[in-house]
């Protein structure tokens, strides 16, 4: 077999976004598209010669053939070994764990996360570093720069290898180890949580629904929840991963996980419900009759993590992305531990986790995780909730009510306006940015604006600076509006409007966040002139 050097030329638009490069599947399948980007990855990290990588993806359409291409390119670029999940499938947190467990030089993850999959939907590729976390901006910038000057890539002409068979094989001299996708991840979970206590809770009649949304977590959830923890067979629904996710939009939020929501709000609801996304790093948590917002979930997990064996020593600190509500900050203050506010995207948590400053991290976009890996981890969050429920022996509703009574409540919602023409969205954001200096002191909807800025972040570990990470409008009463454009979409622009209002409580569960936030929502529309610029008056998705 021979190594081929294929002449190519730069393809426009290969700039990684919030989480890797995401495009429509036919774009990724186009001539040289995947190959150019993979070669740019290898070039940007100083070559692949002699290195070991992890490879896996969320199983969406094109996952299998993309894996074969990446393996042939790794071999041709001189990689020593690639550890691949069976059938090239790995959840994102499982891939992160394998990178760390095997002390590899990083890994390539094929996923477009919660975006739909299929021949006409989305595909994505990202590189994770030896610490298991997404490549930082400096590295993704180097990859992008390389895509703009690339002239050739290297690929072996070896035939496809059988990724269904677990064990060792070789591809053009490169070692390939195919591993079970679930085993090492499940073993890690057993070290963190009190499996006997959770098992006893299930034996005692506790009921649960886990909606895997026809995505990657099905086999993980079935093995851990049903086989190891004794949840009733059938607890996991939509548990078979499908290349098109069965037509589902595998994004665990009340809009897209509506089947789960209907069951949890219905008359025969189980005690606990959860869902995960396409690649298994997101989670939504629901109690019987009570939805838990991701920002509140992070706060409750932070307040109770010590009940799980893996966190019994307590937390070093809690980090949240800037648009995430400040609920977790209140817990951090009460515990006397560090609190950090980072830009959107998991890559910004990596340094804090590596330095031991933060133990738990979370984003309002249904992402929660800890220092056990360097990605957010959907099933991990579900297991931590189960451990807390087993230890406290209370319902989710009771835990939430006690939490709000103690800390007050940060009413919170995110409104998404999708597929706006990019020029209109850019014009709106430019006008808003231009108005920031004039905002402080103004009164809107009976609230006084205390400050307004464009969030910039200086990483406390390496001093790197990230500018323009979202416009913040802060009110004197503690309410807050944040606006930014999505960095993961593949069609036009998506405007995200994050809304928050603090109530010191005591406050029950009976307030509808949309009602509590009504003046803040009106203020956001008038200050940014959303309708005037975009023609939109109502959001497409509310979480
Ligand atoms: C979105 C979320 C962000 C998350 C990212 C990857 O990015 O908002 O919190 O880290 O997906 O899952 P966005 O589209 O807003 O750039
Ligand atoms: Zn995801």
Q: Could you describe the 3D structure shown?
A:
By secondary structure, the chain is of the alpha/beta class. The protein folds into 3 domains: 175 residues, 3-Layer(aba) Sandwich (Alpha-D-Glucose-1,6-Bisphosphate, Chain A, domain 3); 223 residues, 3-Layer(aba) Sandwich (Alpha-D-Glucose-1,6-Bisphosphate, Chain A, domain 3), CATH 3.40.120.10; 134 residues, Alpha-D-phosphohexomutase, C-terminal domain (TATA-Binding Protein, 2-Layer Sandwich), CATH 3.30.310.50. The chain has 18 helices and 27 strands. The strands form 6 sheets. The protein has a 7-stranded mixed β-sheet with strand order 2-6-5-3-4-9-8, sandwiched between helices. A 7-stranded antiparallel β-sheet has the order 20-21-24-25-26-19-27. A 5-stranded mixed β-sheet has the order 11-10-12-13-14, with helices on both faces. Helix 2 crosses helix 3, helix 7 crosses helix 13 and helix 10 packs parallel to helix 11. The longest helix has 15 residues. The N and C termini lie far apart (52 Å). 1-O-phosphono-alpha-D-glucopyranose binds next to loops.
CATH H-level superfamily of the largest domain: Alpha-D-Glucose-1,6-Bisphosphate, subunit A, domain 3
> What is the arithmetic mean of pLDDT?
96
CATH classification class of the largest domain = Alpha Beta
Number of domains: 3
Give the percentage of residues in beta strands: 25-35%
Q: How far do the termini sit from each other?
A: 52 Å
Ligand catalogue: 1-O-phosphono-alpha-D-glucopyranose, zinc ion
Instruction: Specify the biggest β-sheet.
Output: 7 strands, mixed
Helix content bin: 25-40%
Mind telling me which CATH architecture of the largest domain this is? 3-Layer(aba) Sandwich
Low-confidence stretches: none
Secondary structure tally, helices: 18
């Amino acid at each position: 077999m021979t190594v081929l050097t294929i002449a190519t030329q730069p393809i426009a638009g290969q700039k990684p976004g919030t989480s890797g490069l995401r495009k429509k599947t036919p774009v990724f399948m186009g001539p040289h598209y995947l190959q150019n980007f993979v070669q740019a990855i290898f070039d940007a990290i100083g070559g692949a010669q002699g290195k070991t990588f992890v490879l896996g993806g969320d199983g969406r359409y094109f996952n299998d053939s993309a894996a074969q291409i990446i393996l042939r390119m790794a071999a041709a670029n001189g990689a020593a070994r690639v550890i691949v999940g069976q059938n090239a499938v790995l959840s994102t947190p499982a891939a992160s764990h394998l990178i760390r467990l095997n002390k590899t030089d990083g890994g390539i993850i094929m996923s477009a996360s919660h975006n739909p999959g299929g021949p006409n939907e989305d595909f994505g590729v990202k590189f994770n570093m030896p610490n298991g976390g997404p490549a930082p901006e400096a590295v993704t910038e180097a990859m992008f720069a390389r895509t703009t000057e690339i002239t050739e890539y290297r690929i072996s002409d070896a035939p496809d290898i059988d990724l269904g068979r677990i064990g060792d094989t070789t591809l053009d001299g490169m070692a390939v180890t195919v591993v079970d996708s679930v085993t090492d991840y499940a073993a890690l979970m057993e070290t963190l949580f009190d499996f006997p206590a959770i098992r006893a809770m299930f034996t005692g009649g506790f009921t649960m629904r886990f909606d895997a949304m026809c995505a990657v977590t099905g086999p993980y959830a079935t093995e851990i929840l049903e086989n190891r923890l004794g949840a009733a067979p059938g607890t996991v629904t939509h548990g078979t991963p499908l290349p098109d996710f069965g037509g589902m939009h595998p994004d665990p939020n009340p809009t897209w996980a509506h089947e789960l929501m209907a069951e949890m709000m219905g008359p025969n609801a189980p005690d606990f419900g959860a869902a995960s996304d396409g690649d298994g790093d997101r989670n939504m948590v629901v109690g019987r009759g009570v939805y838990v917002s991701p920002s509140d979930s992070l706060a409750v997990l932070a307040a109770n993590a010590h009940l799980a064996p893996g966190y019994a020593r307590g937390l070093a600190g809690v980090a949240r992305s800037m648009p995430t509500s400040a609920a977790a900050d209140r817990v951090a203050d009460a515990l006397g531990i560090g609190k950090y506010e980072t830009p959107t995207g998991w890559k910004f948590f990596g340094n804090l986790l590596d330095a031991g400053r933060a133990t738990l991290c979370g984003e309002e976009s249904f992402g929660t995780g800890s220092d056990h890996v360097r990605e957010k981890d959907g099933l991990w969050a579900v297991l931590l909730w189960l451990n807390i429920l087993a230890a406290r022996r209370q319902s989710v509703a009771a835990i939430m009510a006690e939490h709000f009574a103690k800390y007050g409540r940060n009413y919170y919602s995110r409104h998404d306006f999708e597929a706006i023409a990019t020029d209109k969205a850019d014009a709106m954001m430019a006008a808003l940015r231009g108005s920031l200096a004039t905002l402080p002191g103004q009164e809107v909807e009976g609230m006084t604006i205390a400050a307004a800025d464009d969030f910039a972040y200086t990483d406390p570990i390496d001093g790197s600076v990230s500018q323009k990470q979202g416009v913040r409008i802060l009110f004197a009463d503690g309410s807050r509006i944040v606006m930014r454009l999505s960095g993961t979409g593949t069609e036009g622009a998506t405007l995200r409007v994050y809304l928050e209002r603090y109530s010191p409580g005591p406050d029950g569960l009976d307030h509808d966040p949309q009602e509590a936030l009504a003046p803040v929502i009106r203020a956001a529309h008038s200050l940014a002139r959303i309708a005037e610029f975009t023609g939109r008056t109502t959001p497409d998705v509310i979480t």
